[in-house]
């Protein structure tokens, strides 16, 4: 999901290709107020090209949670009160296929084979639940508890979801910007807060 061009907010699910037989990596990223660089990567525990799976985002004023097949794989909490950026602009859904083979596919070792084009992605059971945005006051009414995602049950993960999150991250996480000392010698503030 992303908002319009310029300073924007964006929530990404990105599938990074790989050689046949190697796991496909799912990268997530959070842009807030035009600032990204919050990548996390994990090797999927299934082949996403073999069957359909559910990829879902929960986005409210408390947290953004990325889910795969109803398991939370990432949480990004709202720490605006501490001076940190948090996605809060209206978002739109954008789907694209792009060539990241210079860095993404097998660490940049395997390039896209354009003779195999056209490339396709297929979707089913697609659904969006959201709040209609008013351009003059984008969040007016969107934080109301009349919306399910703003209810108390969605302010934080429950104990089962926290266990699932910890299990998935422990078993499958391959990169976390919070622990990348080369890029961030001092961990970003949101990494120290959680």
TrEMBL record:
Gene3D superfamilies: 2.60.120.200
Keywords: Glycoprotein, Glycosidase, Hydrolase, Transferase
Matches recorded under PROSITE patterns: GH16_1, GH16_2
InterPro entries, per the entry: Beta-glucanase-like, Beta-glucanase/XTH, ConA-like_dom_sf, GH16_AS, XET_C
Group of enzyme by EC: transferase
Swiss-Prot/TrEMBL GO biological process terms: glucan metabolic process
Keyword Glycoprotein: yes
Residue ranges constituting the GH16 domain according to the UniProt record: 1-123
Pfam families: Glyco_hydro_16, XET_C
Molecular function in Gene Ontology: hydrolase activity, hydrolyzing O-glycosyl compounds; xyloglucan:xyloglucosyl transferase activity
Any single Gene Ontology cellular-component annotation: apoplast
Keyword NAD listed: no
Catalysed transformations (reactions): breaks a beta-(1->4) bond in the backbone of a xyloglucan and transfers the xyloglucanyl segment on to O-4 of the non-reducing terminal glucose residue of an acceptor, which can be a xyloglucan or an oligosaccharide of xyloglucan
Enzyme Commission number(s) of this protein: 2.4.1.207
Highest taxon of source: Eukaryota
Membrane-spanning residues: none
Family matches, as PANTHER family: XYLOGLUCAN ENDOTRANSGLUCOSYLASE/HYDROLASE PROTEIN 8-RELATED
Listed name of the protein: xyloglucan:xyloglucosyl transferase
Organism of this sequence: Ambrosia artemisiifolia
